[in-house]
Amino acid sequence: MTAPGRRSSTFTRLLRHGFTDPSAAEGLLDGAELTEVRSDPVLLEALGATADPDLALHGLVRLLEAQPDPTARRELLDTLVAAKPLRDRLLGVLGASEALADHLARHAGDWQALVTYEPRDLHPGVEEFERGLAEATDPVALRVAYRRCLLSIAARDVCGTIDLAETAAELADLATATLRAALAIAEEAAPGDAALCRLAVIAMGKCGGHELNYVSDVDVIFVGEAVGDADETKALRAATSLASHMMRICSETTVEGSIWPVDANLRPEGRNGPLVRTLSSHVAYYQRWAKTWEFQALLKARPVAGDPGLGAEYVAALQPLVWQAADRENFVADVQKMRRRVVENIPAAEVDRQLKLGPGGLRDVEFAVQLLQLVHGRSDTSLHSGTTLDALEALAAGGYVGRADAAQLDEAYRFLRSMEHRIQLHRLRRTHLVPEDPADLRRLGRSLGLRTDPVVGLQRAWRRHASVVRRLHEKLFYRPLLDAVAQLAPGEARLSPEAARERMVALGYADPASALRHLEALASGVTRKAAIQRTLLPVLLGWFADSADPDAGLLNFRKVSDALGKTPWYLRLLRDEGAAAENLARVLSAGRLAPDLLMRAPEAVALLGDGATGGLAPRGRPQLEQEILAAVRRAEGGEQAVTAARGVRRRELFRTAAADIVGSYGTEAQPAAADQGALVDLVGDAISDLTAATLAGTLRAVVREGWGDTLPTRFAIIGMGRFGGHELGYGSDADVLFVHEPREGVDEREAGDAANKVVAELRRLLQVPSADPPLLIDADLRPEGKSGPLVRTLKSYEAYYRRWSLVWERHALLRAEFVAGDADLGRRFTELVDPLRYPADGLGEDDVREIRRLKARMESERLPRGADPKLHAKLGPGGLSDVEWTVQLVQLRHGHTEAGLRTTRTRAALAAASSAGLIPAEHAGILDEAWVLATRVRNAVMLVRGRAGDTFPTDPRELAAVGRYLGHGPGHAGDMLDEYRRTARRARAVVEELFYA
What we know:
Layout: H1 9-16, H2 22-29, H3 41-48, H4 53-66, H5 70-82, H6 84-96, H7 98-106, H8 119-122, H9 126-133, H10 139-158, H11 164-189, H12 191-196, E1 197-203, H13 205-208, E2 218-226, H14 232-251, E3 262-263, E4 276-277, H15 279-288, H16 292-298, E5 302-306, H17 308-322, H18 331-344, H19 362-376, H20 388-397, H21 403-427, H22 438-447, H23 454-486, H24 497-506, H25 512-523, H26 528-545, H27 550-564, H28 570-576, H29 578-588, H30 593-599, H31 621-634, H32 638-665, H33 676-707, E6 713-719, H34 721-724, E7 734-742, H35 748-767, E8 777-778, E9 791-793, H36 794-803, H37 807-812, E10 817-821, H38 823-837, H39 845-862, H40 880-894, H41 906-915, H42 921-945, H43 956-965, H44 973-996
Parallel strand pairs: 2-3, 2-4, 7-8, 7-9
Antiparallel strand pairs: 1-2, 1-5, 6-7, 6-10
Helix pairs in contact: 1-2, 2-4, 4-6, 4-7, 5-6, 6-10, 9-11, 10-11, 11-14, 15-17, 18-19, 19-20, 19-23, 20-21, 21-23, 22-23, 23-24, 23-25, 23-26, 24-25, 25-27, 26-27, 26-28, 26-29, 27-29, 28-29, 29-32, 30-32, 31-32, 31-33, 32-33, 33-35, 40-41, 40-44, 41-42, 42-43, 42-44
């Protein structure tokens, strides 16, 4: 008898054997069912070896209670104690699966299925499982027989008699036998239908790949043909009836539950297509309409039930099409986009628990392997396997994947699949989520052999393997390319030149030979520089492939690396600062402008980092002016000073372009900016501030060079057009007015001469040919246009505007804003023109008609011959001109009374007009959307082509690059053009109502 307050020896032994509730376990052992064996050390040791000893003991007691009589109970106990194979199998199952314990409690004799331990029982195939299901003639009996067969697989699995791959293969074989049995039941119920048709069941997905889970949808496709001269329509109707009945037999819930859902949604047209098609219909669909993912799915197609001849014909007809999929345009991009879409659709709360779909999950391995199979399987039949681990082994043997990488992926995949199996086995429920309950995690860890600290050990092993997958799954595609050209590992199988070329073409490289030469130049050798490049390039190649022009990205990277390769910080920056390498890859492959700016001063790569010296956020005008004016002061002469100012401008243009590209493309850490208007404002503000600061510095340099500290006349530069509106693009000229005012005691002629010399020298210096992009000054919006003087005094402006100003000049002055020079003179100029641009009486009807006439004339005269007006971002219907003139007409009419309209910015004026009720909110939203899109199109054209343009490029690759910038994936340039036309059409309808009505 145990003394009060002291633990019994049994209690202590139970704790030592892994029981978490030893009191309850002690009670169960003291029950009548286990009286005879309660003190048997072999039983306790066997229970302690299970994943969950408490669960195993509880299941054993339930099984004993379910035995029909004492003789049966005695037989079970005697066999349990005497036969180690049965003991390990039965208790192993009871400790791992509550659902199978329930089955044994309902079918108390099924434990006998675990008694035999013959060699033939170790690896049953389809035939053995068919024998196990042979007596099932209805859905309920089929479920019972299925569970009995599943019991034997689970028992050998948890005991380690079979490994993961063998378990998955046996589960697929059991599914095959089950589908055959279900089809037989359906045919027996409708012999007339069976006589009319030939029906083949093609397994897809994990069942087709011979790698099924314990609980998974079984994906299938049905093929049907008429028998003899039977009518095809009637035969297909009969086949559809049989297929539907077969699916229900497996899927419907009965008193014995269900088996698993049969899913036919991988068929042509998905759930919208017919359930059963003829073979010729299947072939026609895949030849004409199938998407890339559908060929990827066909990798695993395998006939499993029904008419074997028809199934073989199906595979023979469609397999050749599978291996042509890699020739499709945007093949790699389509596969990778599909993978990203899967990740994006995971609920946020589940991402960190997803074994299958999350980053570093099973799907990453499967997608990577399938991608490589499709690329290289065209010329290498050894890769034609539907089983992930077999395909991975074949890829490594052929040199398509590095052996070390393949070994790590194989280990990680086996571990993650084993986790998935054990999670599903517990309750036989379809799930891919790692449990959160500590008891579930403990059982899961113990089931995988982690006994010391199962929860911590499980979390650590899971994260480690997921990290391996995340690190390798993309690099898997690219690293062998480097091995092929660098040739550093003697004895390692590596890609043949033809296989390397195939892979580069699949990635979207138009000139694979040149691309491989660039890789060889970057990665060959034993230097530290080459070693770092070999680490970086697999990831960079993936980012280049994600662009519209991978060739340009790789070529530009080589140029930058050649220019900076000897600097100590360059490769270290790319290797150690997470954002820098990806930002650089995006910038180098997005078009010509940003790389051209970078090549002129490659050290600007430092801006792409995320450290203290990096950062892509544009700098404000005060900071820019301070830097440029300091550089001007240090310079020895005017030309040197302006060269320094233009150098700052070039660097800051690169910063802005890089920020715009990265924001538009997005990165792995930060998705693409959702607010396109914010990106437009960022570019417009940044370039306008930069232009103003450059003019301020150049003006200071010119004055100092010619007159010392003080010019004989006060001088100011007024921004006009997009410059004054803070809406400059990458290719915009700077529209300006020049105004001066003689200082006291200075002759007007002397002051005028000085002002004109300043303007002439300023324009010359900003356009001197050099490595830096020129800044073109356009003063055509001055009074009298090109016929008038370039610079006027403030009094001259006042006299002109009072007597001669035309409505177009008042219209143009809506954008006037002081940008550089004498701030007081600039303020007084603004005060001078305010009554003109915001007239107290608004606009008369004659003025309105004149504005409309001018706009129509401008569109007819300036629209380039042959251009499609509907795709002209500036002058076309619904383009920039439409929106801006509509907003500016409202400003001219109501600016005097509505303070919010007194702004030079289009979007701000539009928002103010909407707030004041002058433009309906819905109309304002349509106009704003169109203006932002048209502005982005112009920015994209300049970024991609390196020269300004108002229309979409005609070159397919350039058009695709514009599409990527605007958020349209590979192969969707047509969608981009449709979106632009639709947006512009809606805006034009609003303009017709507001501007022309």
